[in-house]
Amino acid sequence: MTRNKLALSLAGLLLAPIAGTAFAQSAPAAAQDQTQPASNQSNTKQLQTITVTGSALPRVDTETPSPVTVITAQQIARSGFTTISDVVRAVSADNSGSIPNAFSNGFAAGASGVALRGLTVNSTLVLIDGHRVASYAVSDDGERSFVDLNTIPLAAVERIEVLKDGASSIYGADAIAGVVNIIMKPGFKGVEATADVGTSQHGGGFTRKATLLAGGGDLDTDHYNGYFSVQYQKDNDILANQRQFPLNTGDLSSIGGSGLAGAPGRLAGPNGAIQNPTTGLWQPLQACTTGPLVTVPGQGSWCRYDAVNYNGQIQPAMEQGGIYSRITIKINDTTKAYLSASFNQSKLEAPTLSGNSIQTSTPINTNNITLPATNPSNPFGVAAPISYNFGDIPSGFNYNNHAARIVGDVAGVVGDWNYDVTGVINHTWLNTTQYGFITYSGLINAINNNTYNFVNPSANTGAVRQSIAPGYDKTSTSDLDTLDFSANRELWDLAGGPMGVALGAQVRHEAQDDPTLNPATINPLTGLPTLEFEGLGNAHTKGSRDVTGVYGEFDMPLLESLELDASGRFDHYSDVGNNFSPKLGFKWKPLDWVAVRGTYSKGFRAPSFAENGSSASQGFVTYQTPTSFQANHSAAYNLPYALAEFTQANPNIKPEKATNFTFGVVVQPTSWLNASLDYYNIKKTNVIVQADTSSALAAYYAGTPQAPGVIVVPDVPDTGIYAGNQARPAEVIGEYINANSLKTTGVDLDLQAHFDFSNNIHYISELTGTQIFEWQMQFPNGVTQNYVGTQGPYNLSSGAGTPRTRASWANTIEYGPLTVTGTLYFTSSYANIAEDVGVGPGMCLVTSPNGANFPLSCRTGPTYDFDLTASYAINDHISVTGSIMNVFDRAPPFDPADYSGAGMNYNPTWSQSNAIGRFFNLGVKVKF
User: Fold this and answer.
1) Rounded CA separation 259/124 (Å)
2) Residue ranges of the TonB-dependent receptor-like beta-barrel domain (predicted)?
3) CA–CA–CA angle 339, 173, 426 (5° rounding)
């Protein structure tokens, strides 16, 4: 009986049109082959057993008490995806906190991560062949550790198993939401090469990819098998001005949103503007080159500047490549060993949206910078306020990530025990180059010494620009070294079959060293250390620890129809102490075609080095003051702006704990239909979060005391008739805390049906979906925040929100040498509210200039994406492939609040393929 298929009516299935779906089939497969060479009849049985993710015991019946979805290499090929990141993040259980490659302005830019159950990337454990992988060297939001999916090559992948259940009882920390286990090919003979090119219908994004897989040797006859794979892919960038409204502009005035003419101090653009000290009116420093002259009564004139259209980027330029090699040796009839080595590199170019402006709030507020009377760019003869964006100094980041990994394994049989010993050495290093960010000291020197020409930027020398924006390089590293030992055997026969036991132990060393992104210098105004670069967030993390763990598992087939499974793991952390995680599971088959299953488990997540080490981070979220505040301030002061959030590590932080239980039904009423429906319920306690920003802001506006350790720093006050009114918040400072609890519940639906018709036509339909019932956080003060179906938690990663439903449906027709697959992906709509930044029901994250919700519905619509792929085998050695992604060229739903889209009014976490538009791929595959 295959796993994870939900029972749907046959009539509904047959009437449904053939239009795509989830390629992520739930079909039986192994997490790791645990086959042992046969030396006698009892060992022969082991050749037919596999180990499924979430269990340490090999088994013949691959349907375990836990829900596991398997994505085969064939399904991956039919999806049209070319990276592990795209494959894994398309799983319907991936939700809030997921990290897309398109989020290029976050701390973890250049990386991609999966967040099962919406519990963020640090609660999903990613394994390769059942063993841990080193984390990305930079933490998401400066807090969360995760594995970068971009550093795992796709060419040598045999399958991917997604365990949608807690698994700390086997794997230890981080497996609260589930496990993604990427299984590499155990061996390969022959030569297989591919070459692909692709391009977007609307311009930009040209991609090319090539892979080579070659190997030889036979374990039975040659006593060895060895192979290697090489993969390379390069994707060009896609600019915002290559797409249609509203992706190509920051001016939303035509649909009731904010325009570009309301804030000379923020949107003056590369042309710059200066304020007449006598009249108080603004005027441009030079002739307009970025747009027409704009005049606003009572404020003056300046050049229109659309930063999104000028510098916006839908897709960053990215280049990935790597090599994976493996050799397996059959030592004798009962023992074999393998050694694998891999190296992968991923580069990403991420220019900032609008360059860097004089006007910033942190670390030193420069909103009221003036040009002295002696500066040649000042026409007034007295000091005058200036607004300026350094358009002649491009700014951004270049990321170059590397991952090297060596694995050695020996497996065999001693007596009645099957054993496996594995050692892993994994090191990553990330080179980050920051360029174009201005320093306060460089800016003041350039102004006071008249070295920078504001009127004619082209006259500035490279040395002058370098003195204002010197740039900065850093190298961040992470390490994971492990030694694993496991053994299993049959104990005695029960009514349903032999009882099995597995025992294991692990020793590992973890380390992370991420230097500061924004080094400190002495503030000339206060004499105190202050971050050097203006308007740039910061994070630094350093820590290491040793972990020792032991675990055991018992599988008890009490009856032919009833199986019980019990497991538990004890871990000792050198920095946070001890933890024990148990798990119980059952599977009951009252009928041959029906199985009822369930699990109950305890899990935990140890604090990351960013959360409990000598670490801190400062990031920014797009924020707009509440309407009650806006009534007492000017229109320019009320525009959305970057609110800084500074969070410090807490050495007394406690590990997160979790209680999970699942309950499901698996049915196979006929040979052509497999289905499952599984309910999940996860409750976390001691959840580690930043200080509650919403409560801090509410207290600030109300003038009431803040919680201990929380500070709200005000911005420079508004001027004119509003002078003296409360200033808007510029920064919220706090430390990580253990919030009270987090709870999420929902169901997973999986279905596969297949039909054989005349003329050798084979049809496969696969459906997967996840529905979240609740996702809520309760803080120590009793405040409860509900996020499901909203854009909260907004402070999390890219602020992508928590869609209630994600689903996919794939339909494949095989006709001789031709295979055609259509896949439909769906993500439900969500409200543009977020309680974690003080925006609840009736309070939209973005409002129009007159204070109304924007959009008026305060919702972002659902996302649909239909992909079509095909392959045709010309002969046994050559086949051609092609795909049309986003066949119907459906545009992304409008989302002006999402900041991961860098102001381009869509949500790249769920709608990136829609922003790219219709995309064509063509390839060839050769094998011998």
Assistant:
1) 41
2) 360-887
3) 30
Is the model more confident about 714 or about 363?
A: 714
- The model scores a pTM over 0.85: yes
Q: How far is CA 331 from CA 184, 410, 623, 656, in A?
A: 21, 10, 63, 44
Beta strands 729-735 and 761-778 are: unpaired
Distance CA 920, CA 884 (A): 5
Measure the CA angle with vertex 332, ends 327 and 338; round to 5°. 20
Q: Are 269 and 362 in contact (CB under 8 A)?
A: no
Identify the three-state secondary structure at position 659.
strand
Average pLDDT, the chain: 89
Question: Is residue 742 a contact partner of residue 774, using CB atoms and an 8 Å limit?
Answer: no
CA separation for the pair 88, 183 (Å, rounded): 13
Average pLDDT of 10-33?
35
Q: What secondary structure does DSSP assign to 2-25, as a single string?
A: -SSB----HHHHHHS----B----
Check if the beta carbon of residue 165 is closer than 8 Å to that of residue 175.
Answer: no
CATH superfamily of 10-237+316-352+397-436+471-614+649-690+736-828+861-927: TonB-dependent receptor, beta-barrel domain (2.40.170.20)
List strand residue ranges (DSSP E) for 35-123, in order: 50-51, 58-59, 68-72
Reported as type and span, the H/E element at residue 643 is strand 641-648
pLDDT band for position 2 (cuts 50, 70, 90): very low
Vertex 388: Cα angle to 382 and 394 (nearest 5) = 145
What's the helix, strand, coil split of the chain in %, to 5?
A: 10, 45, 40
754, 758, 761, 762 alpha-carbon torsion, rounded to 10°: 10
Residue pair 22/768 in contact (Cβ under 8 Å)? The answer is yes
Which amino acid would we find at residue 256? Answer: G
Largest CA distance in the chain: 99
pLDDT band at 616 (very low <50, low <70, confident <90, very high): confident
What local confidence, expressed as pLDDT, does residue 7 receive?
32
DSSP state letters, 221-280: TTSEEEEEEEEEEEE--EEGGGS-TTTT-S--GGGTS--SSS-HHHH-TTT-EEE-TTT-
All residues at 6 or more sequence positions from 862 whose CB lies less than 8 Å from its CB, including other chains:
826, 827, 828, 829, 893
Q: Please report which helix (H) or strand (E) contains residue 320, including its range.
A: strand 317-332
pLDDT band (50, 70, 90) for residue 881:
very high
Would you mind telling me the total number of residues written for the chain in this entry? 928
Say how far apart CA 368 and CA 361 lie, in whole Å: 10
Residues 6 or more apart in contact with residue 807 via CB below 8 angstroms: 21, 22, 92, 749, 767, 768, 769, 770, 825, 826
Query: In this predicted model, which residue has the larger pLDDT, 351 or 32?
Result: 351
Contact present, 648 and 172 (Cβ < 8 Å):
no
Per-residue pLDDT reduced to its tens digit, 163-217: 999 999 999 999 999 999 999 999 999 999 999 999 999 999 999 999 999 999 9
Fill in the amino acid letter for 630. Q
- Distance between CA 905 and CA 332 in Å, rounded? 62
Burial class (CB in 10 A: 0-12, 13-18, 19+), 43: middle
741-800 pLDDT per residue, tens: 999 999 999 999 999 999 899 999 999 999 999 999 988 778 889 999 999 998 888 789
CA 772 to CA 763: how far, in whole Å? 30
Residue 181 is inside which H or E element, if any? strand 178-184
Whole-number percent of the chain with pLDDT over 90:
68
Task: Reply yes or no on whether the pLDDT at 927 is more than 90.
Answer: yes
